[in-house]
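does this look right to u?? adenosine-5'-diphosphate version
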Amino acid sequence: MASEKLQLRARLIVPALIRLAILGAIALGLGLMFGATAGLWFAVLVLALLLVVYLGYLSLLGVWLDDPRLDTVPDGYGAWAEIFTRLYKSRRATVVSERKLLDNEERFRRTISALPEGILLVDAALQIEWCNPEAERHLGISLKADQGLRLTNLVRDPTFVAYMTSGRFVEPLVFRPLARPAFVLSVAVIEFEPARSIVITHDVTQAERVDAMRRDFVANVSHELRTPLTVVNGFLETLLDSDMPLDDVRRRHLHLMHEQAGRMNHLIEDLLMLSRLESQESALLEEDVDMGHLLSEVVDDARALSAGRHALLADAQPARVRGNREELRSAIGNLVSNAIRYTPAGGSIRLTWRLVDDGAEVGVHDTGIGVAPEHIPRLTERFYRVDKSRSRETGGTGLGLAIVKHVMLRHQGRLDIESVPGAGSTFSLWLPRARVVAEAVSRKAA
Ligand code: ADP
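got this back:
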């Protein structure tokens, strides 16, 4: 490398030095023939001429550098010819790589534009850097007109704005844009650089329609089954309570039938509750909920369910939240009932309610059988059970945690699960700060 550089320098300088030496020799010859003054004049004139030529080339170079195009690289003589040839080569290499880069970018954009998903590039302030035509269609924006504008100023749906500014993108948002209510959109955000994110939009109208049909079907079937089951249950209770003489076998059969009918009833109630929670139409009826009071009611129910087999403790801060009391009670009740059912006799169950930095949290801690990590992400799926027979034996429907998850979704909260197999679990319900009644927040700050 170093020797190459030396060679190049020699190629540029040596011919110029030779030319200077020849001129020097001519000047010396003239000096000897016509006197020193003539030799000196000749040398001065030739050097001045060379200076003018060099200045000319320098100005050519300066002008070209101002607009360095491949077709206008100047021609030169001697060392300048070598310099201009090198400039030409380096410029050509730059032009070729720029063209390749542009081609690649163009191909990349064309590929992204052809995707069935909408893709948007946004910066940290949610300003649109680029988007494909599908994203324009989904969000009703235009790249030409809206580039550089804040996405949340253009799509003003409160759910969308809350999601985009929440900074929590674990689950995609599914919403109906206010401008086009017949259209259902799923939005996911991938933060791929500290100051940039990709927003992916997907038209899920058809999938949502199928899901709604499934929900309606389940709700209708559950509803239709409820009446006959109530009748069967009623007759079974009458039979069991009556003085009619029954032998032991018949009485046991009747008890079993009553028990199973009770389970079916429980299952139908849970299915109906889940359909109601999932339904877009059933708006969340909100009130101020005194969580300390609610927790003490849940603990009373839990005492009856545990029948003295577990130590039950509750530790609640005096804080109220905005939410639906019945739904919150059902969610916490489900967690506590699970804690009792999955904690062997002698274990303990602790309920906590406290304010945290970004909201408030109900914790249900148990010292039960725990859950292996691979099952945790699936626990909120309908009918997902780690141990089917244990769930059934203890009267589980397999829908409890699905109900909890939906109640939390309706309250813009979430369910967090931590568990160590054999040591116990903590199921926490987090509610956002906006749901905590102001008085409680200021008390925490004070
Ligand atoms: P189930 O009616 O079967 O309890 P859930 O939806 O309430 O249905 O819970 C789903 C599964 O999660 C349960 O079957 C059980 O395997 C597991 N699970 C829930 N709570 C606990 C807990 N406190 N300890 C251990 N496992 C639990």
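The two ends are 71 Å apart (CA to CA). idk if thats expected tbh
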